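tool_call: predict_structure(chain=1)
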Amino acid sequence: MNKTRAWIALMTAIVMLSACGQPDFTYVRDREGTTYFKVPSSFSQLNAYPIELSLSGDHPNSEAARLRRERVWSTAFDQSAQPSVAHLLSSTDPFIYATVHKLTDEQRDGMSLDQLRDFILPVTAQIRAMYLSKATEAGRQPLFNRFESISDQILQLDRGARGVRVRFNYQIGGDVQTFDHTAILDERGATVSVMLIGCQAICFRARAAEFDKIEQTFKLLRLPG
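tool_result:
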């Protein structure tokens, strides 16, 4: 009996140690250490550089791409069994993209709440119209169709930082994809920090509370100095 109890105690200790060795979250900071969030450890972290090239249209060997690498930090997380940056815009599983941009003087002078809304994808009516017009002029079918606004919130944050959180649908191919976009302009107007969470609409409705918890960890950090 004593041997049995000892064996049970040993196995319990092993299980507890194993659990302790597997953190529940991945804790993330940007390159400068000023933007913070955490993601459940069930997500796989990816190199987001291909996303940067896709969003900017820059050639990887161009001067524009080099300058972008200096001013932009980004990362991505995918909960798919086969993680891929291609899931940013269409996936049955949740995908998270986060980026921090150091703004140029010109960008700082013109940054508005609408520009925060449109920082990654076309959200406002004006930018959506421009996107459709450019697609038509180029003779191609638009990737994003049938925009639906779900919510739009203005964020008033500590020390004068401000931002927006918008949730919206786009039909992409044969599926409807839901996106939750949070963009924060720091109090100096020097950086924009963005988190974009997306998955198919059915997935998003079922797991919206989980995504809210992830989004609520997305914060600016105040460093000494």
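agent: The longest helix spans residues 2-20. Proceeding to next step.
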